[in-house]
Amino acid sequence: LRLLPQQRYLRAERAEVSALERKRNVLCCLITRILKVEKQLHIDNLVFRVIDACQKGELGPGLQFLSFCCHSVDVLSCVLHLLNQGYLRRQEGRPHVLEY
Q1: Cα–Cα–Cα angle for 48, 51, 52, nearest 5°?
Q2: Predicted confidence (pLDDT) at residue 54 exceeds the cutoff of 70
Q3: CA distance 96 to 85
Q4: How far apart are CA 57 and CA 95, in angstroms?
Q5: 61, part of any domain
Q6: Would the pTM of this model clear 0.85, i.e. be above it?
Q7: Which InterPro entries has this protein been placed in (predicted)?
Q8: Whole-angstrom distance, CA of residue 40 vs CA of residue 57
Q9: Does a structural domain hold residue 25?
């Protein structure tokens, strides 16, 4: 029996997974922070606000982070995650409007 050294691609894959988790966490924080202020927002407006905040690298006074590229698919994925977790909800009769 011979043990093989750990492959380099496995380490790179772990780093990518960690980076994706950090990105998702930042996006979820942005979404909840925006909806805490606005109370309710059309999903399209929320996506644009989150993408804009990511590009600018800040969201209001006191909260700054490194700017990074995010797409509407990333934001919508996080919205679905937060809906499933119960942090967000859709308005009755207006499912395109989200509430915190």
Answers
A1: 80
A2: yes
A3: 18
A4: 29
A5: yes
A6: no
A7: Cullin, Cullin_neddylation_domain, WH-like_DNA-bd_sf, WH_DNA-bd_sf
A8: 23
A9: no
C-beta separation of 87 from 32 below 8 A: yes
Q: What DSSP state is assigned to residue 97?
A: E
As for how many domains the chain has, the answer is 1
> Pick the residue with more confidence: 61 or 15?
15
CB atoms within 10 A of CB 24: 15
- For the segment 58-71, the average pLDDT, to the nearest whole number, is 61
Among candidate residues 83, 86, 66, 65, the one with its CA nearest the CA of residue 75: 83
User: How high is the pLDDT of residue 3?
Assistant: 57
Task: Decide: 59 and 12 in contact? Cβ < 8 Å.
Answer: no
Residue 75 pLDDT > 80: yes
Please give the structure tokens belonging to residue 14: 């772990």
Residue 76: domain span:
41-99
